[in-house]
Amino acid sequence: MTNKIDLLKNNNVDVNAALELWGDMDSYNESLKEFKDTLNSKLASLENYKNESDWSNYAILAHSIKSEAKYLGFMKDSEVFLNHELKGKEGNKDYILANFNTLKETVRNIVTLLNNYFSTEISNKKNILIADDSNIILNYLEKNMAEEYKISRASDGSDAIAILQNNDIYAILLDLNMPGLDGFEVLRYLKENNLIDKIPVVIITGDDTEETIKKVFSYPILDVLNKPFNDKSIDKILLSIKGFYENNKL
After folding, report:
1. What is the pLDDT of residue 250?
2. CB 209 within 8 A of CB 182
3. For residues 203 and 172, what is the distance between their CA atoms, to the nearest angstrom?
4. Can you give the residue ranges of every domain in the chain?
5. Residue 123: its pLDDT value, please?
6. In CATH, what class is 127-249?
7. 189-210 burial code (b ≥16 CB/10 A, e <16)
8. pLDDT, tens only, 190-249
9. DSSP 8-state class, residue 201
């Protein structure tokens, strides 16, 4: 977290002042994301107002961007938008035309900085591999985990193995019944490559027959997530994964 904050502070973002308003990092980050995601569309609207000489709406939108920038700690950048707000109110076309490229560059710099900031956030998250041939299952699991974890998705065993070979994986949620290489083939790969004891594996299945469960637990898996499952089931699994690493520290 400290390194991420330093990235903003080293680029003249007054994070401390912003936190006095937002109160906590979660609220601040949520607002930063919204600011980043809407800046380019607001820039396009500003350019349209400029081209149409609609200085009233130009000033209103420049004021809105200025306020957001200031509240989020972009004090120096907010001055650029303030100047365009004031010149828009005056209908000062010459100033706006002469300085619009500076405004565009300011927007680009903010978006680039925030993209770097949030990519750092993602890279610092532990990576969970979810392998399932159902997009519904993948989407549901990702929705419930993406806030805390980076999610790598695989639709079959071959994809799962490729991801394992090229990424540092924190945990695996593995469906058994997939096209091509199935879940058991992935389990065999993990065992043959001495990964089965190092990465916690949770099996996703709707088959709770004695034969299947016995076969699954012939491997040292962490747990089974039976279909259909819900948010509480997922929370329980995530706690088990954390427990796996806590126990291995002892």
Report:
1. 53
2. no
3. 8
4. 2-123, 127-249
5. 64
6. alpha beta
7. bbeeeeebeebbbbbbbeeeee
8. 999 999 999 999 999 888 788 988 999 999 999 999 888 899 999 999 999 999 998 876
9. E
Question: Which residue has 């002469």 as its token pair?
Answer: 98
Cis before 220? omega within 30 = no
Low-confidence ranges of the chain (pLDDT < 70): 1-3, 120-123, 249-250
The CATH code of domain 2-123 reads 1.20.120
CA distances, 153 to each of 60, 97, 204, 233 (Å): 43, 47, 14, 19
Distance separating alpha carbons of residues 149 and 171, to the nearest angstrom: 10
User: What pLDDT score was predicted for residue 183?
Assistant: 93
Q: Residue with structure tokens 């949030």?
A: 118
Handedness of CA 234, 236, 240, 241 (dihedral sign): positive
